Amino acid sequence: MKLSVVHRTRYDYAAPVRASFNEARLQPISQDGQECHQFELRIEPSATINTYYDFYGNIVHFFERAEPHQNLIIESQSLVTTVSRLLDENREVMPLGQLQGLAMVERCFDFLQTSTLLSLDTEVWKLAMDATAGCRDIWEASLAIMRFIHTNFIYSPEATDVNTPMSQVIQMRKGVCQDFAHVMIGMCRTLKIPARYASGYIYNGPHDHLNGAQASHAWCEVFLPGIGWQGLDPTNNRQVDEHHVKIGIGRDYADIIPVKGHYRGTPQKHMTVEVAVALVE
């Protein structure tokens, strides 16, 4: 599936600000069959853009605007080809009782620990045990956790924001894709299943009914020995497929914030975000 993505973030400040330093993680990766054919980043007022790769291999664009300005627009345009990498849901991968050794695997270690926005406390572990009762296999358990969240949590954009603690989301049983990804990752990690946060977009076609298409999307990836990282989308109760455009990964949202920065000046500002994902015929 070939998709075009436009992501536009606009900041309007109550008074001119200066010394603005920003990072953008907006460029889709070319990996695991996904290919980013074109990417363009536009900054207004204009600024020189530089690029580097962060610790997890995500593409980061950074820029600064020293001169006073009262608004800032960051707009990315991408053209991406996506593929489906679905795994048979009845496939046996590894018994849950044999997961201890994964903590020694370098690419899994970070994704078994607590992190900035994740809690691995007893409450999360109990929730994971309830969700996976009767499960014997790592893949079976991962699917059960995804289904449990989709069934027991309500998608509600007004219920949370980016600063809502994971514990509060569990209590309310409400949230958005970022919240559900965090809950799933936390539940998986308490069972010693390596799990990481994936950031990107989702295409909601004319005959689809998918949540999370109006903004940046997020899902969970679990590590399956002998297979690799497999994406699961608890918001929509489905494996990650050609509808998903992946930007990058991290331990949680704090590692892969689409746009972040700081500046000198008034704290009063208004931010608007627009995302459009379209099928290219």
Explain how this protein is built.
- The chain is built from five helices and 14 strands.
- By secondary structure, the chain is an alpha+beta fold.
- Strands 1, 2, 3, 4, 5, 13 and 14 form a seven-stranded antiparallel sheet that branches. The protein has a five-stranded antiparallel sheet with strand order 11-10-9-8-12, covered by helices on one side.
- Strand 9 and strand 10 form a beta hairpin.
- It starts with a strand and ends with a strand.
- The relative contact order is 0.23.
- The model has no long low-confidence stretch (mean pLDDT 94).
Short summary of the structure?
With 281 residues, this protein is of the alpha+beta class.
Helix/strand order, N-terminal first: EEEEEHHHEHEHEEEEEEE
Shape: globular
**SSE-based structural type:** alpha+beta
- Measured between the Cα atoms of the first and last residue, the distance is 9 Å
**Sheet with the most strands, sense and barrel status:** 7 strands, antiparallel
